[in-house]
Design a protein that fits this description.
Largest sheet: 4 strands, mixed
Order of helices and strands: HEEEHHEH
CATH topology: Ribosomal Protein S5, domain 2
Helix content: 40-55%
Structural class: alpha+beta
Number of strands: 4
Radius of gyration: 14 Å
Strand content: 15-25%
Shape: globular
């Protein structure tokens, strides 16, 4: 039995400005509250099935501590459910660029964030297949 590795490598984090600009310019979006998910299927270019970024607005949370806490929650939920997003990318035969934008004005619980990630994976599967 091979166990899944719940890791999050540097390559899986979307950091190239060119890809980020492309994602926001041409990507489509939907809401899995409290997250807005922007996605763009691309041809194999990055070497990983899914690259993502997480953004929490300074307008909603003035303190960096709270913004960083929300990003940590979202990142952890993504890390544990990354395989769902990879399955979607594999089924579509493309690599995915994803952006998760936090929408709520209140700090979410991990359960809320996990629920949103699962809903995002489900909606993404529906949209790409």
């Amino acid at each position: 039995m091979t166990g899944r590795r719940y890791t999050l490598s540097k390559a899986e984090r979307l950091s190239w400005k060119r890809y980020i600009d492309l994602l926001f310019a041409e990507g489509e979006s939907f809401v899995a509250y409290p997250l807005r998910v922007i996605y763009l299927p691309v041809e194999q270019t990055m070497g990983v099935p899914v690259s993502f970024l997480i953004s929490v607005s300074k307008k909603r949370f003035k303190r960096a501590v709270k913004r960083n806490a929300m990003k940590r929650l979202a990142r952890e939920a993504f890390r544990l459910h990354k395989a769902d997003f990879q399955d979607v990318a594999h089924a579509a035969g493309k690599e995915l660029l994803l952006a998760f934008l936090y929408l709520d004005k209140e700090i979410a619980t991990y359960a809320d964030m996990e629920k949103a990630m699962l809903k995002a994976a489900r909606l993404l599967r529906e949209k790409l297949t």
